[in-house]
Structure formats: structure tokens, C-alpha cells
Amino acid sequence: MSPKAMIQDNTRCIGCRACMIACMAWNNLPGDTGQHFFAGAGYQNPRDLDARNYTVITYSGIEAGPTGQPDWVFGRLLCMHCLEPACASACPTTALRKTPEGPVVFNSFRCIGCRYCMQACPFVVPKFEFDRVVPVIHKCTFCADRIAVGREPACAQVCPTEAITFGEREDMVKEARHRIASAPTRYVPHIYGLDEVGGTSILHLSSVPFEQLGYPTNLPDRPPPTLTQKALQFTPKIFTTVWVTMALITMFVRRRFRFWAEDEHGENHDPRH
Amino acid sequence: MIRGIEAPSWWRPVSWVLWGLVLAAVVATIVRYATGIATIANVNQAYPWGWWVGFDMLTRIALGGVGFTMAAAAEIFGVKSLRPLTRAAVLVGLLWYATYAAVLMVELGRPWLVWWVFISWAPTSAMYEVALCAVAYMTVLMLEFSPQVLAKLGLTTPLRRIRAVYLLIVITGVSLSSLHQSSLGTLLLLVPTKVHPLWHTELLPPMFLLSAIMAGPAMMIVEHSLSTRFLRLTPRMDALRSLGRGLTVLVAVYLAVRIGDVLYRGVADQALVFDFVARWFWLEITIGLVVPLALLLTPDVERHEWRLFAAGVCVVVGVALHRLNAAVFTMKVHSWETYQPATTEVLISVGAMAAMVLVYAFVVSWLPIHTEPPIEPESGRAPSGAVAQVAS
After folding, report:
1. Other CB atoms within 10 A of residue B342 CB
2. Are residue A111 and residue A58 in the same domain, yes or no?
3. In the predicted model, is pLDDT for residue A24 greater than 90?
4. Which of A60, A235, A241, A254 to mutate against chain B (most B CBs within 10 Å)?
5. DSSP codes joined into one string, B78-125
6. Any domain includes A67
7. What is the CATH number of domain B12-369?
8. B107 Cα to chain A: minimum distance (Å)
9. Minimal-distance CA residue of chain B relative to A132
10. CB–CB of B120 and A93 under 8 A?
11. Across the interface, do B124 and A225 touch by the CB < 8 Å criterion?
12. Shortest Cα–Cα distance, A19 to chain B (Å)
């Protein structure tokens, strides 16, 4: 199956949060009483993703909307399903992996709770149940189970304004470009997720610059795993090189200085004795 | 076998305090296992790694580098004066690694599944490499230390076998260390958007390895100064001299790399604004590198043990600061969320330190770590590191 993607067109979002409800229903997540209102960036409730909320619609105030009046803009938090996910590269037990269809899926069975995936994620998406005795990592699954049987993710299905569009990534990129080109006043000319950290499976469109939606905008285009790969690829070479070098130095030093002889105090400090 | 090492009079009350700290940490651990990490730690959704990673993982492993650096200096590079110290170095290294492993069992969310790492294949993960190499190196440390125990127990056959491959063990230990010490830097390399630019550099892996090597002689100076003082032994000044010289070179090189890297990447201006982050940066540079270098470069430093000791302490604190700064103190993820270590988080670390001291005290009274009987006892000459008042 070819890689899928989803357009999150924030200009079409009306903030109804049906996607959040559909997500909870499909993933059997408990409802959230939410005590964080006004506690973070934006005015949404809950303020951020957590172990019980795989997606959150954010409400951000801007000073001048289309009519010049203060206005609301909506954004959406969810796993971006990076093409080269840092979380999956970081996981020491391969509990996280990127599937060919696009979703980055999590196998809780293998998770040891090191939380390196949370640290690795540039979008701060994976969440942990710090308050549970047997905690698990939680994050959006891109409804991998639905995609596997040829259906679209739950959020995409319920969105009443077609703000969420699901399809082949190639088609979605074309569609996003087409939307921006056909309505340049409606969109900022940037597809968030096209190049960020090497590209993601979720492509966001917006009417205002993305930092006003609270999206991280300091992201490199280079996928973070390439940074660590540069270091980790040398592992076998480093081991062999250091080993051989040390062995050669040992042989050289010992031959030269007759190392095992007792020192001038008549002591033998050979640690092997 | 061991003669004359007896505990100072104040050891008993101090040991009770240490036992109290260990007990408190054990209680906190029980609470954590019964109710979840959130009860005793402030790590949260934005800052999933806290004090336990910054100190108990990154710093403990760096300070445990004393094992491989001293073994390499004495056994591979043939620095004779350091050979009497290698037993203590291996012991201290082993204690740092063992307490890292112990605290890891508190820090991990699902520690009972940690064995998954050993049956996984995740070559893209720095954490995977750290886990495998650290466990392998702990085995090496135990093998390096085993001759002491085997000799004490009189098990001559395994002792002979260990001795036959001792050098291979040391060399393997150095190789494993250069891998996982640098991979600790690779851990942070993955998050360029969260680690502050003053700390995030592509040189993190080699810099972490270099600072671990630098921590080796520093830790050794600290250990030797403290142990000789408290166990009333004569300090081996020749060894301290070698350590001081090595440390001077290492600190100078590391300082040059650290400052050069900040300048080369053009982020020096962020150190000059004097905000919260810059203060930590300058504290780390000053205490960890400039002050010890100044102390080490004073004339006649080799005859002033306290200067060497102070320099050693500074470098150890500086290495800890570098890692805590990079991974905890200056990390910024969300503007509206912060992380400060909880008292109970630090308590776990303190309890682990107390346990280290207790185990250390037991081992040095049981095994000849600091003293070695002279080869020719009839000569009546006490070895330079032996107990000062053997006769008394």
C-alpha cells in the first residue's frame, strides 16, 4: 500500500471538535474532565495532548482577523506521522515503528518506559501515564487499524467541514498546493509538514503564520534521525579501531618498558595479584 | 590480608545517617512502585526526562569513566605510578555504574520489561547502544574487580583464568566505554529543537567521551585524597602528580573544544545576554574548567594536595553541570511548562550516593584496595601507600 497522508486545513476548521470525539470513540479513550483551561498556550480544553487525548483542537486569539477585528484561529495537535520519525529511531526496543502505509504505530507490549520517544519527538506528541502503576505511552495511531481495512481515520470521517482530507500522500501534496494556489489570500503560502523534519504524513494549512497557531516553527528540514545516524553508523568501526589501537599500544609499551617488572620500591602492583 | 585499616571514630554515627538516607530512598522507591512515577517526580508530558536522566544516567556514567581511564592509563599506556590506584578506580567505577543501574529501575516507567532491550535489534537508537554497551562494560568492570574477590576467597583456578585474559578485558572495557560514553551525547544530538544551542552541537558525542575521560583523573584525585585522609594512609604523591598533569592537559583541551565549538557555531551571543541560561553556561565554564585549570597551573601545584583536590572536585562538578545543563536545566520545550526536580527525585540520587559510600566502606575494609602487602615483608619497609600507623 502506498503511503497515506491527511490534510489538516485549519482555514476550514470551525472548532467543533467532532474529530476529538470521534478519536476518543474509536480508540476507547475515557472522556476528560479537563482542569487546564487557560493554563497553556491558547484557550482550548484540554490545553495539550495527553495520554487520554490523541488529538486536540487549539483555539488561539489573533489581533486582526479577515475583517480587521480580533478573531479566533484554530489549529490541531496530533501525531504528525513523520516520514522519518525520530521517536521510532530512538526507541531501544523498536516498540515504535513506521508502517509503509504511513502511520507510526506503537506496540505497548515492548515498551520499557524510557520515554526517549517523548524526548525525541519535535512535536512533543507521545504522552506517558506518569500517574499509573503500569504506565503506557499513548499517541495518535493515524487509525492504522482503519487504514489497514481501507477506511479513512475516524477524525477525517466525521469532520463536517472537510477540514480533514485523507488520501495518498502524493495526491494530498498536490491538493494542498492547489488550494494555496487557487486562494492565495485565504492561505499563508506554506504547507506545514511538507518539509518539516524531512516531511510528515499530516499536512497543515493555515490562514495565519503557523507560529500564531502555536505550532513549533524552529524545525529543521533535515530529519533528526540523520543527526544520530551520522554518529551511530561508526559503532562497529569505533569498537574495532579502539580495540586494535589499544592492543598495539599495550604491546609496544610492554616491550619497551619491561612493564611487569617490580617497581623501585620492591612493590608489585599488578592488579591481577 | 589487610592490615591496619580501621574505621575512624566518627564513622559509626555517619554510617547511621547514610543508612537513613538509603532507607528514605527505598521508601520513596516503594511509593513510586505502588502509585506511579508522578507521586515522587516532577517529570511531565513536556519534560519526560529529568534529574534522574541528567544526573543518574548521564553524570553517573561519566564519573564511572574513572574505571576505564585509570585502567587504560596504568595497564595500556604504562603509567606506573597509577597502577596502585587501579583497584580503587575499578571499585569506584563499578559503584557509579551499579547505582546508575539501580536508579534506572526507578526512572524507567516499566522496568520489569527492561530485558526487551536485550532481545531487540535497534541500531538506530542511541539508547539501545548505551544500554547494551553499559551492561557489557559493567560486566567488564566486575571481571576487572574479580581478582580481588577471588584472591580473598582463595579461588585460585578462576583467578588464574582471569589473570590470563586480564589485558584483553581491560582493552575491551576501553572500547566499550568509548562507544557508550559518546552515545550518551548522541542521545541529546537527536533533539536539536529542545537542547539549547549553547549545548547542542554535532560534537556532542566526542565531547561527552572527552569529558568522561577528563572526569577520570579528576574522580581519581578526589577518591585518593578522601580515602587516604579518612583511612589515614599516606597519599601517593607520585600518582597524584601524574593525575594532575593528565588532568591539566585534558581540561585545557576540553576547554578549547567547548569554547571553540560555541564560537564556531556562532552562538556565543547567547552566552553574553546574561539570562538564566547564560548564567548556567558561565557557571559550568567557570567552576568546571577555568577554576580547575587555574588551580592546576599554579606553580608548585604538585606539592599542594589541596589544590589538586579542589581542582578534581571542580572538574567533577563541571562534568555534572555540563550534562545537567544540556539535558535538564536549560532544556525548553513549552513556554508555559517547566520542570524542576522534586525533592524525592534528588532523594533517590542521594540515597544511591549513600549506598555507594557504605558499600565502598565495606569493600575497603574487606579487600586490599588501598594497601598491598610488600613483596618482601621481612624487609620491614612499609609500602608508600600503606597505613601510616601500622605499628600502633
Report:
1. 18
2. yes
3. yes
4. A235
5. --GGGGGGHHHHHHHHHHHHHHHHHHHHHHSSSGGGGGGGGG---TT-
6. yes
7. 1.20.1630.10
8. 8
9. B36
10. yes
11. yes
12. 22
- Residues B310, B249: Cα–Cα separation, whole Å: 17
Question: Going by C-beta distance under 8 Å and a sequence separation of 6 or more, which residues neighbour residue A215?
Answer: A75, A192, A204
Asked if residue A108 belongs to a domain, the reply is yes
Domain with A242, as residue range(s), is 234-273
How near does any CA of chain B get to the CA of A251, in Å? 8
Question: Do the chains contact at A112 and B114, CB–CB below 8 Å?
Answer: yes
The shortest C-alpha distance from A3 to chain B (Å) reads 22
Structural domain contains residue A229: no
What percentage of chain B exceeds 70 in pLDDT? 93
One domain, residues A219 and A256: no
User: pLDDT by residue (tens digit) across B140-155?
Assistant: 999 999 999 999 899 9
Residues A191 and A272 both lie in one domain: no
Spell out which residues of chain B touch residue A50, defining contact as CB-CB under 8 Å: 45
Q: Residues of A with CB below 8 A from B108's CB?
A: 112-114
Q: B222 pairs with which residues across the strands?
A: none
- Regarding whether A256 and A203 lie in a shared domain, the answer is no
Give the count of domains, chain A: 2
Predicted ipTM? Answer: 0.89
Domain boundaries, chain B: 12-369
Q: Estimate the share of chain A in helix, then strand, then coil, as percent rounded to the nearest 5.
A: 30, 15, 55
Q: Which three cell numbers stand for residue A247?
A: 592492543
Shared domain check, A220 and A239 = no
| Residue pLDDT, tens place only, A220-265 | 999 999 999 988 988 899 999 999 999 999 988 887 765 555 554 4
Whether A64 and A191 share a structural domain: yes
Residues with pLDDT less than 50, chain B = 1-3, 373-392
CA distance A73 to A51: 25
Among A110, A130, A132, the residue with its CB nearest the CB of B116 is A110
Last residue of a domain, one of A224, A243, A264: A224
